[in-house]
Structure formats: structure tokens, C-alpha cells
Amino acid sequence: MKRSDAPPRVGRVSDDDGSDRPIDEKAERRAARELVAAYHQEQLRGLLEHVRRGFAQLDAREIDEFELDELVHRYKKAAAKLWAFCGAGGGRQLDAANAITYLRERQQELPDWWNEAARSRRA
């Protein structure tokens, strides 16, 4: 991978000559933590909306209790995959922040955790 193709690093500053240099490591980690926390919260809310709709469907008798139970299991699997991606801290959060930034800057899709959970279930 050429240097220009490398994913951008959160908290890096470009010098006049085009090279990157790290900013304060604590600030870099803080920025990564904040980015990943916001992303995690946004994605978790989306996953919870599936559960909310499931309860509405149950109340409307569009699905039964077993189908809702299946939906809840899928939610748990999707939330676990999201948690694993976001990392528990340190370097993993920095990796996640870099991946999020890289994909957003290139206007590429970030993972669809709901569909990821369905795919792993079929495998």
C-alpha cells in the first residue's frame, strides 16, 4: 500500500511537505474515543429501533412471541459485533476511529450491523 493510499489517522496533522505527524497522543486517543463513542451510540440506537418495531409488530399481532424472541437474539448478536468493532479501549478504539474516518472520507458504506448478524447466523 502506497503512503497516499494508507488510511488517515485520527489526530494527525499534515505538514507543509505533505507528511503526517502525530499530535499529542492523549489528544489523539481522546478524539478517537469521542468519535467511536458517538458512532457506537448512533449505531446502537439504530439496532434498538429494530427491537422497538418488533414490539410494535407483536402488539399488532403481525409477529408472534417466537419471532420477537428471534429478533431479540439477532439484536444481541448485532450489538456484540458492533461492540467488538468499536473496541474496549486503547489501540482498538484508535483502529476503529481510523476505519470510520477512512470509510466516511471515501463515502464508502460502514458495516450494517443488523445485516452482519443475519449473515453470521446463516453461516
Structural summary, described in words:
A two-stranded antiparallel ribbon has the order 1-2. A hairpin with a 5-residue loop joins strand 1 and strand 2. The two termini are 31 Å apart. The protein has one domain. The protein is built from four helices and two strands. The chain is mainly alpha-helical and 123 residues long. It is elongated, with a radius of gyration of 19 Å. The model has no long low-confidence stretch (mean pLDDT 85). Helix 1 runs antiparallel to helix 2.
Helical content (DSSP H or I, runs of 4+): 55-70%
Could you tell me the radius of gyration in angstroms?
A: 19 Å
Q: Compute the number of helices.
A: 4
Portion in beta strands: under 5%
Notable characteristics:
123 residues, mainly alpha, two-stranded antiparallel sheet, 4 helices, 2 strands, 5% strand
Please write out the topology.
Blueprint: E1 12-14, E2 20-22, H1 25-59, H2 65-86, H3 91-105, H4 113-122
Antiparallel strand pairs: 1-2
Helix pairs in contact: 1-2, 1-3, 2-4
In short:
The chain has 123 residues and is mainly alpha-helical. The chain is 67% helix and 5% strand.
